[in-house]
Specification:
By secondary structure, the chain is an alpha+beta fold. It folds into 2 domains: 94 residues, Orthogonal Bundle (Arc Repressor Mutant, subunit A); 51 residues, Dna Ligase, domain 1 (2-Layer Sandwich), CATH 3.30.1490.190. Helix content is 43%, strand content 16%. Strands 4-3-5 form a 3-stranded mixed β-sheet, with no helix packed on it. A two-stranded antiparallel sheet has the order 1-2. Helix 2 crosses helix 3, helix 2 crosses helix 4 and helix 3 crosses helix 4. It is globular and about 45 Å long. The N and C termini lie far apart (53 Å).
Length: 147
């Protein structure tokens, strides 16, 4: 039987993160983590709740919100504010950085990556003697379908 090293590493990361916050590692919290890591969608806490319930997991909204808050605090997931009052969440894969185009009409989110923008951000930070740890780049406008 082959062990999935990535799964073991991320499980350990989750356990350590929860422990730092004084929270127990539980099957429910592991399933929240798995759900976030398994999707490329930008979902709010309620959508995550219903996805887990649909899979038959008994879980409270409080557990979801508490777990999401910890994962955001430690930069394991990203929190997106697209201006509609509902925070969206996505897995933070530090090796697959991307930014977002957000339609203010329908809420569609398009992910993109641009090396020129990334280099320009580094250059600007250096010019101001500023060392940034992470960033979120969101461009708001109207998508092609809503024009």
């Amino acid at each position: 039987m082959r062990l999935n090293l990535n799964k073991i590493i991320t499980m350990q990361l989750l356990k350590e993160t929860l422990q730092r916050e004084g929270l127990r590692y539980t099957k429910q919290r592991q399933e929240i983590w798995n759900e976030l890591r398994s999707s490329n969608e930008h979902r709010d806490a309620e959508e995550i709740f219903f996805a887990l319930r649909k899979r038959g997991l008994e879980i409270s909204r409080a557990t979801i919100y508490r777990t999401i808050d910890v994962l955001v605090k430690y930069n394991l997931i990203d929190k997106l504010d697209i201006g509609d009052g509902r925070a969206r969440f996505e897995y933070n894969d530090k090796y697959l950085h991307h930014d977002h185009l957000i339609c203010t009409s329908c809420g569609k989110i398009v992910e993109f990556h641009n090396d020129e923008i990334e280099e320009l951000q580094k250059k600007i930070a250096k010019q101001h003697n500023f060392k940034f740890s992470h960033h979120s780049h969101q461009l708001f406008g109207i998508c092609e379908d809503c024009k």
